[in-house]
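Our working data are protein records whose layout never changes between entries. The record below serves as our worked example for the rest of this section:
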Amino acid sequence: MPRGLFITLEGLDGSGKTTQIKKLAAWMLKRGLRPVVTRQPGGTASGDRIRALLLDTGSTPVAPMTELALMFADRAQAIAEVIEPALAEGKIVLCDRFTDSTEAYQGGGRQLGSEVVLELHRLVCGALKPDLTLLLLPSLKLSLDRARRRNDRHLAQNGANEARFEQEEEAFFRRVWQKYREIAKREPERVILIEGNLAIDEVHEQIVEAVSERVVIVSPRA
């Protein structure tokens, strides 16, 4: 059986990843494709516990290297439990964040550098890399405004507060934003950069164009 396709969506919180991954999954379903949709951190029982520790504002302070190690612990479990089995079965995997996020947030934002992140990726993830990464980079201000409004809604609706990163200073997010651009420049064949304050449908169109070049599409269902 041919190996499946591994597609990741990347960007700052508030960049529109969650909306776009849902739209992409729906677009695939209409065309006879049944993607496996997951996220990081999270996506497994142990990963969701790690996610709570990493993102909840009520968590005790987490040192940058601890944060980095937890990200890769979550990733190792997701690869073993979700991603590799699906790819081995020939499925498409859509993942909200992967190692690019760790390089951007911990390598760039926390200033740990890319080298330690990429070395951990080699040790933990082996040769596994996304076949395609869709990097959404609207303006920094728009991303942060969206993320903070979203976290306010989640807190009001269900009491969940995953805003630990959003409490960082703007300089932190500027480093993350710049590191994402570095990654896109370094790996232009894998990373499709979609930048600017575009409408949701405009972003979706660019995503569909990039994905259509890499997947076999059957006739849409009525």
Notes: The longest strand covers residues 5-10. The mean pLDDT is 89. The CA atoms of residues 44 and 159 lie 21 Å apart.
